[in-house]
């Protein structure tokens, strides 16, 4: 009887430990999920694409050699300097231009730099587009922080719902996403087929100030009766370009 009781105690202890291990593993995995991925999941949307546009400026026109040296240094910071021979160099009327493109099945990198003799400035631009939901764009920001350029980062995450959503539903979907990241709605723009809300959340460090107001997240939902579904956009700190 004592031996059976001992077995039961050991079995119960193992179950408790196993349960704790499973719960810890699940919670740990969720805690490391991207807030954008979780936001899409919370409204039943699938992730289509993540995009990073970042740029830096030097208040000086670099020479061709200086531009190439700085360009290669950034590639090394990104771990992308294995095929330097793919760099394309051209001279334009206003200055020098360098570009480099790397494309795989799910990720595309386009890096370029150019000088402007009229303004006596040099610009660097990096664009990364990924269709892999598990790819963390923030890793690029961490790598670029090792260099000496002052980069500005704009993220855009695109998701899709497989059904049409009307104006009221668009507002509700955006409210759910903003609540998930701890943001309250601030500025709202909407028309018949699109709703866009900009807000601020302490979850993200970088922000922009417009008319003395701070923003660091913009969420938009777009849907027309002709579309096969609705598109959801999450921009951080704002959405740039057309959508």
UniProtKB/TrEMBL annotation:
Pfam families documented for this protein: DUF1779 (PF08680)
Gene3D superfamilies recorded: YwmB-like (3.30.360.40)
Name recorded for this polypeptide: Uncharacterized protein
Species of provenance: hydrocarbon metagenome
